[in-house]
Amino acid sequence: MFPLLHLLSAFVRVGTIGEEQGSTSDLFMIDGAILPNEWQRFLIHAEFVQSLNDAGFYWSPESRSIAPSTWVYLGVLCGGTPLLPHVRRLSWTIESPQSTSILSLLSPSIESLTISSSSLRRSGLSDDSRREWQSCIRSTLHLISSNAIHISQLTLNSNMEPSSLCLSVWKLQSLRVFTVGKVDIADLHALSQLPNLAELYLTSIQGSIQDFSTQTAIEFSS
């Protein structure tokens, strides 16, 4: 997103974050009004974006981060329409459970979506923090099922509680390939009802699958 956002003169570096974790990140935000001609140029360029990969970007050695207020501002300017109306492949990292960045990026045009959350994968999270993250991912899945309904490939790089998944994923009737961590047997039965699901990649299943049968190819990975 940075090449696009740098088309806006109001998008500037305002400082650094993460000193307390020992890994700093340059913080950028929209600071001030966006000029109408710059916004029109931004929208023209955004029309041509078909692939965006920011997954894992925020934990790179020279990472940059975008202030949450910037995504709120962009969402208001877009008036509820997708920021990237023709994006087909999206890989995105959710930085915090309060992040709203993905809301402006979800589009019916998306065919392949990867969602990452490194924080949720950490073993040292408190119970409250983990519940907050679980709620965030559940809400994100609900938004995906409502706004990106033509997804055929979905990857969740986060440690979810099994019961959090299927309430939303089952609505993705075009889903063909689903990669996720652990699921329970109830989730597995629900996922097997997806009419087009052909491949399911898991790390583990909670419960017995002795009496379970499906036409979906299930593969376990570490």
Task: Describe this structure as you would to a colleague.
With 222 residues, the protein is an alpha/beta fold. The chain has one domain. Helices cover 28% and strands 23% of the residues. It is built from seven helices and twelve strands. The protein has helices at residues 2-5, 36-46, 68-78, 118-121, 127-147, 166-169, 185-191, and strands at residues 11-17, 25-30, 51-53, 64-66, 89-93, 112-116, 153-157, 177-179, 182-184, 199-202, 204-206, 217-220. Strands 3-5-6-7-8-10-12 form a seven-stranded parallel sheet, with no helix packed on it. A three-stranded mixed sheet has the order 1-2-4.
Q: State the major sheet.
A: 7 strands, parallel
Query: Helix- and strand-based class?
Result: alpha/beta
Summarize model confidence as the mean pLDDT: 82
User: What would you call the shape?
Assistant: globular
Helix content: 25-40%
Strands across the major sheet, in which order? Answer: 3-5-6-7-8-10-12
Point out poorly predicted stretches: 56-61
What fraction of the residues are assigned to beta strands by DSSP? Answer: 15-25%
How many separate helices?
Answer: 7
**Gyration radius, rounded:** 19 Å
Number of domains: 1
Number of beta strands:
12
Order of helices and strands: HEEHEEHEEHHEHEEHEEE
Cα distance spanning the termini: 31 Å
